[in-house]
Amino acid sequence: MTTLSIDHVSRWFGNVVAVNDITMTIGPGVTGLLGPNGAGKSTLINMMGGFLAPSTGTVTLDGQPVWRNEAIYKHIGIVPEREAMYDFLTGREFVVANAELHGLGAKAAQRALATVEMEYAQDRKISTYSKGMRQRVKMASALVHDPSLLLLDEPFNGMDPRQRMQLMELLRRMGDEGRTVLFSSHILEEVEQLARHIEVVVAGRHAASGDFRKIRRLMTDRPHRYLVRSSDDRALAAALIADPSTSGIEVDHTEGALRIQAVDFGRFTALLPKVARDHGIRLLTVSPSDESLESVFSYLVAA
Amino acid sequence: MYDPTVARLTYRALLGRRRALILGALPLLLIAISVVVRGLAGADDQTASDLLGGLALATMVPIIGVIAGTGAIGPEIDDGSVVYLLAKPVKRPTIIFTKLIVAIAVTMVFSALPTLIAGFILNGNGQQIAVAYTVAALVASIAYAAMFLLLGTVSRHAVVFGLVYALVWEALFGSLVSGARTLSVQQWSLAVAHKVAGGDLVTSDVGLPTATVLLVVVTVLATWYAGQKLRTLTLAGEE
């Protein structure tokens, strides 16, 4: 049982607060760290991995401090987001070097390369690898010492769907084996496919924590805004506002469109085409106007 | 204290194709100039001493030291690949010490060895000049490697600062301000060379005891401090 505890951790760079008083506990199984780009995920992972000192608060692994404690790396495997990784070595040489630095040998390296299915390209220079191959070799270097905690920073970035599936399968297996696996992502679907437990970070703050279904519901239940153009905007507005799924409609003369705020996402999306058909109105444009991840997340923070 | 894996990675990074070309160019230039000078002026002790002192020890050794010392760790910190060394249960001073040994070895091979060859070409080691400057280059290699390794650990602009120290401080200020000469690796190593050569062809502004103490203090302090800095090295995220 490996538990990573983040206790009232803040980190600022000059005047900028990157991580703001976050407390969370990461236990065995796969946990997804979700948040938009620039939310402080990498800063948080760097602190979890002992590469950055918290300005305040503590990060501990089973009670042991992570910062300035080299011995802790016997238990931690890290897959950094950055690409650079001794490109002049072959995949095998790289993983062997990583094994040796843990006091292990070529056998451990070979096992790790087999786990990520990279044996076929192990004797090629890393500089010739694709993004997905690099990611897998990084993964092998992190697994070589059989760590109980695995930290991955945006591991799926730039991977093709097949590589993504393979890595997800691997991480799932690691989680099922009782390891503590934490990965960061800014893509909700990615996180929900893999992690049962989700921690959401937005603008440096801990926005939500828990089961992905609960968080998913919070995300879909938020008020949605749409921009709609039709053959008869006023008639459509009158028909829609009669239904409780719509909380507000504005007629935007300059855009020549309706700005609709829906409070019940499911009901509204079923209602709109039905109302249009019943009133003989043609829908010309239906576009969500605040689907950006940032707005979804900022809603979560307020919730 | 010494980790063979860290050493192997450092050697391979340092002697990669492009850097090896830069490291090899200066020694080849020194030897070529020595051949030309010997051919034109014949064997002359004063000329040999001037060339080895002015070109080899004052210019080539510090530049090779900058390339090897900063190159042993700087690029890894810059591109973030140092994370693979740091995410290991390896003591930070061990990483620094190992990289220092590699940087010293590379600096010695690419600066002291060519100095010896050039010295023999210039005057066949008359008055022990070739050996004296080689010893100076060996001694200077240790101090330069330590200083520039520290610089590579603490600064992203290590090469620039290193070259400014080597060329501006040691060469320019050293010739204008006498105080600067006391705080110069070149002068300390010349004090050692003076002891080897005897006579007054090789001279230093610093006495041997002072030079020895300063060489040891600078090397030890720089190495110790680099180890401390690596313990708290912050890898900034990409956000």
From TrEMBL, chain A:
MF GO annotations: ATP binding; ATP hydrolysis activity
Membrane-spanning segments: none
The entry's keywords: ATP-binding, Nucleotide-binding, Transport
SUPFAM superfamilies xrefs: P-loop containing nucleoside triphosphate hydrolases
Record PROSITE patterns: ABC_TRANSPORTER_1, ABC_TRANSPORTER_2
Domain ABC transporter intervals: 4-228
Pfam families: ABC_tran (PF00005)
Name of the featured protein: ABC transporter
Biological source species: Streptomyces diastatochromogenes
TrEMBL record, chain B:
CC terms in the record's Gene Ontology section: plasma membrane
A Pfam family that the UniProt record links to this protein: ABC2_membrane_2
Transmembrane portions of the chain: 20-41, 53-74, 95-122, 128-151, 158-180, 206-226
Coiled-coil annotated residue ranges, if any: none
Molecular function per GO: ABC-type transporter activity
Domain of life: Bacteria
PANTHER family listed in its UniProt record: INTEGRAL MEMBRANE PROTEIN-RELATED (PTHR37305), MEMBRANE PROTEIN (PTHR37305:SF1)
Name assigned to this protein: ABC transporter permease
